[in-house]
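Changelog-adjacent note: as of this version, every example in the card shows the full chain rather than a window. The one below runs 415 residues end to end.
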Amino acid sequence: MAPYETDDRAKAADEADDRRAGRHRAARYVVPVAVVGVAAATIGLVPALASSGDPDLPKVTARELLEKIAASDVEQLSGTVKVSADLGLPDLGGLAGGFASGAVRGDGDSSADPQSKLMELVSGTHTLRVATDGPDRGKVSLLEDAAEYSVVHNGKDVWGYDSKSNEVYHATAPAGAGRKAPHDMPATPGDLADEALESVDDTTSVKVDGTAQVAGRDAYKLVVEPKQSGSTVGAISIAVDARTGLPLKFTLTPASGGAAVVDVGFTKVDFSRPAASTFDFTPPKGAKVTEGDDHADTGKGLPRGMGRAMPPGAGTAVPKGGEGLDGVKTIGKGWSTIAEFHTGGTGLPSGGKGSSGNSDVDGFLNSLGDHVTGSFGSGTVFSTRLVNALITDDGTVYAGAVTKDALVKAAEAAH
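Full-length structure tokens:
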């Protein structure tokens, strides 16, 4: 598909800014209109046609579809979302999930803390029920076997409830937080689509690739692909509701091929206002209630309307807590961005100075990664289907949605 001419970029940005200034939009599901201008040189100009059997919708260019997403003013909805993730994490018999959850919430804290539940979404398939009514009211329920976990945001109150343990977590949302309220849980395709589209720049190709039906609604398919080599991201596909501009489905496929790494989509959606009682919550009798801290800036989370999601693009491998690590910096740009930081200690056992001295322990840890050497010394690369990390023997970490070779080259260039 033919790209826009470079001279059109400033004009596109100006036009987008004019539209933004005169339009009231919801705080949720917003993709900055500036994306239209920034990405103008890489967006496909030719409209895509519907494939056989797909909805026959009016022709639209990628630029027009981005504008439609940015202009979406959906503030009320309810529905069911299917979340599937296949990061290719090693099977440790549940040990990894339990350790990660414990590391996030800390021993002795409530199992109803939303942060602990985030770990359950990084693998397998899950069903969520979602509802939202403006930026200060929302609910996400994770349906489990004979149990349910819910996060509810209603005004200043944020509640988490685990029916299995009968535990309740309560925190107070900062005044006027809107979409930056605490305890951010990526629960809908819009949560992920926003972050992906905010990352669009001249390292990215954006095009329309036909139409589809999602949750019984006609949609356009927007495809975002890295132009750079070295990224583990193959493509991101976003199904955009033809009427409302709301992202209905988000799919990230790896450059290595195979099944999607992340696939999040509505199976049912209703744009009428949910009943006010949907967001009511009172701790059940006998439940253990844990009062959490107020987290105005932690980035933890609820569904969109209650916070932001973890970005799926490159350069996002370091969690929010990484800002407290020693000298976090980035190498490269766009989809090939690599985060570099120091753990503050030595690296993982690899037979060198980081060795534990216990051959069984060292062998187990090394079995989870690949031992590499270079001008930086030696280290271990831990890989998933999307994010990879190199930990050198001196405790330096290089991480990103990039290949193992890209991490080794970055480490060598830094020495």
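Structural remarks: The mean pLDDT is 73.
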